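Hello Y.,

Per our agreement to keep a running log of every chain we model this quarter, I'm adding this entry. I've kept the format consistent with earlier entries: sequence first, then predicted structure.
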Amino acid sequence: MKFALSSLCAASMLAMGAAAVVPIGAPLAAEDKEALKALDAQLPGDLVNDPSRIDWQSYGADMEAGSIVDESIPGGGAARRFEIKRAAEFIYTAGTNVPLTQKVSRGDTITIGFYARAVEADTDDGKGVIRVRFQQNAEPFPGFGEQTLSIGNDWAWYEATAEAEQTLNTRDGIVALQFGRTRQTLEIGQAIIVSGASKIADQGPVTVAAAKVDVPELEMPEGLAGTGALLNNPGQATWKFGGSAGGYSNRDEPAIWMMKATRFEVAEPGTQLTDLYATVPINQAIGKGDKLTIAIAARTIASGAEDGKAVAASRIQGTVPPFESFASNRFKVGDKWQLIKIQTEAPRDYTPGGAELQLYFGGTQQQVDLGPVYIFKTSE
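Predicted structure for the entry above:
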């Protein structure tokens, strides 16, 4: 991390209120499970991901990501759009991770196929650039099978295959699609990952019935309605997660807004608070003097503290040197889903993407679930 926390103050807490439930990211219905079984039966090898999901974890300080729906998109009628606004030195600085749902053992053949197109790209031929990497989504992020694909301007099916040089478990096994080294706009649709086969299909599994692709939708708690202008995407698809103090895992949580959560777990005390974290991009501009309200949905699963409450912290940080920060807070989290509300004021102007919210969960033995996070501008 680029800094250590200091001057932490208490944050106010607000009990969760009622909210309308939108069935986005909920566990698969029985008919969808049957559709995936039918898909698996017709594919070569064994299906090791859920092709009905495109709400993948994405990251990149100079990237905007969102979902699009159009019946003309092959493989389900939905896709994720990634706009990389500034090319970085390294390709892995922006990307999206497709999680595994089944274990892939060392020595197995693993293949990913996905639909994609380049809307525009700052390359000589106008084609997009995606690097595929099979890897563990935990430090030091070991992986294998790196392949760079050239993505055309029309929808097409792309594949990459490799022999697994390490075992990938369901807890943190992913296929990383990386594209941060090129200024470009990409659209990536349904992805299928199999083990035990080096080829899925020449033009994509168009003859196989695919499960419906779910597209994340904004869900606003009633207690936050009218708070102000929303500056971020509350869902976790564009967030970054990491740290060496423990582990984290993305999970479905039907009881919470947006129905997605990440569980952070620290097994041993004595770690640094900042060494297990989530990074929430702020996509809109912030002006000097703007009053901001941050609302964090969280709950404690387990804690070694006497009161049974986990300890977390937050701060807003600039994304370019000198990485200055403000609004440092430290707070406790109860054992029921709740909104932790923090109010602050911006000390200077920030361009869209020029600031991000950092949330920290290290420091002591505990398990914490993090749900959606809302960042509002409440005044000009």
